[in-house]
């Protein structure tokens, strides 16, 4: 993706953007590995460390062996599992709290229906403008200038197919987001009168949804497993595509420029080695995530935004402001 920046500006900008993307994605994948560990830890005797090691190992194995084709096929299967598990959890929780109206009443009483707050104060974290503008900037980065997405576009038959894929993907993205958000709303209504963290049922708010699912599905065979599978699918999808895309960035942006005589076989061998190394690094980030304070959502959003904004700005500057350039001779 960042080859454009070298043509438009220079090699330094390309490498800086690539490095920034690598750092951001490595931390983000560490968070993604940590999430299913919480889910599995809530419903099985397996420890967090064991689960994180297992997840990282599986992702690294099939990504290193199968490359982009393995990533795309597994993503397709994992999408159905994620949606099924998330939707089942949302419907069950909504039914248990008394329906959609009960959820909305609970949110109203708790002052949580602040989506239509049009306050222009930029220091406020949740207003209509921060959500609408921030989410669109984040989605623009994800859909337009992220390496993992670019590789998917390149796997399409033609530019028209890539455009169709980009347009079609907006709708399931919106659907997934709505299911996740409303699941959180239903969870708030379910625990309205009893905070599970204060009562000692969980030790971190990140454990809330897995704990809730294990409660509401305790007498329904297979449903807890479906939710855990959905959590794992999300992680496998994120980490496998992340490792594959970062391997491409490291190879093309940092190794190939200094060793242009590399054969195709050598490039493949180096890519697999990089994938294994990244898998180990992601595992280390997952262990680091366990020690962080704050919720995983807030940490992930901060990490993603700190790099996504500048990267999107670079491409926007290059495409829409033709009079900008780099300082030569420095």
TrEMBL record:
Annotated PROSITE patterns:
NA_SOLUT_SYMP_3 (PS50283)
Show the stretches that span the lipid bilayer. 16-35, 47-68, 80-104, 124-145, 166-191, 226-247, 268-287, 307-324
Q: Where in the cell is it found?
A: Cell membrane
> What keywords are annotated for this sequence in UniProt?
Cell membrane, Ion transport, Membrane, Sodium, Sodium transport, Transmembrane, Transmembrane helix, Transport
Determine if ATP-binding is one of this entry's keywords: no
The answer to keyword Membrane applying to this record is yes
Superkingdom of the source? Eukaryota
Query: What coarse category fits the chief subcellular location reported for this protein?
Result: membrane
Membrane topology, from the record:
Multi-pass membrane protein
State the family named in the UniProt similarity comment for this chain: Belongs to the sodium:solute symporter (SSF) (TC 2.A.21) family.
Q: Which PANTHER family match?
A: SODIUM-COUPLED MONOCARBOXYLATE TRANSPORTER, SODIUM_IODIDE COTRANSPORTER-LIKE
NCBIfam families from the xrefs? sss
Listed name of the protein: Sodium-coupled monocarboxylate transporter 1
Instruction: Give the species.
Output: Clavelina lepadiformis
């Amino acid at each position: 993706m960042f080859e454009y920046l070298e043509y438009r500006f220079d090699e330094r900008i390309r490498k800086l953007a690539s490095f920034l993307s690598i750092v951001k994605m490595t931390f983000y994948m560490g968070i993604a590995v940590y999430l299913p560990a919480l889910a599995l830890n809530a419903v099985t005797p397996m420890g967090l460390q064991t689960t994180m090691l297992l997840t990282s190992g599986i992702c690294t194995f099939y990504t290193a062996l199968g490359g982009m084709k393995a990533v795309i096929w597994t993503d397709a299967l994992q999408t159905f599992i994620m949606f099924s598990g998330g939707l089942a959890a949302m419907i069950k929780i909504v039914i248990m709290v008394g329906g959609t109206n009960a959820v909305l009443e609970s949110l109203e009483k708790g002052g949580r229906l602040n989506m239509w707050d049009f306050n222009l104060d930029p220091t406020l974290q949740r207003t209509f403008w921060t959500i609408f503008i921030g989410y669109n900037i984040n989605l623009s980065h994800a859909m337009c200038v992220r390496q993992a997405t670019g590789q998917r576009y390149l796997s399409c038959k033609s530019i028209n197919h890539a455009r169709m894929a980009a347009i079609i993907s907006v709708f399931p993205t919106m659907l997934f987001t709505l299911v996740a958000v409303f699941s959180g709303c239903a969870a708030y209504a379910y625990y309205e009168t009893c905070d599970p963290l204060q009562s000692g049922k969980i030790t971190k708010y990140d454990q809330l949804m897995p704990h809730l699912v294990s409660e509401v599905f305790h007498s329904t065979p297979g449903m807890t497993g479906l939710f855990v599978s959905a959590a794992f699918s999300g992680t496998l999808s994120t980490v496998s595509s992340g490792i594959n895309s970062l391997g491409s960035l490291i190879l093309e942006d940092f190794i190939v420029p200094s060793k242009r005589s590399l054969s195709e076989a050598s490039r493949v061998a180096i890519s697999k080695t990089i994938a294994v190394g990244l898998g180990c690094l992601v595992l280390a980030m997952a262990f680091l995530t366990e020690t962080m304070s704050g919720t995983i959502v807030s940490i992930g959003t901060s990490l993603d935004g700190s790099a996504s904004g500048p990267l999107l700005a670079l491409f926007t500057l290059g495409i829409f402001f033709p009079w900008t350039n780099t300082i030569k001779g420095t």
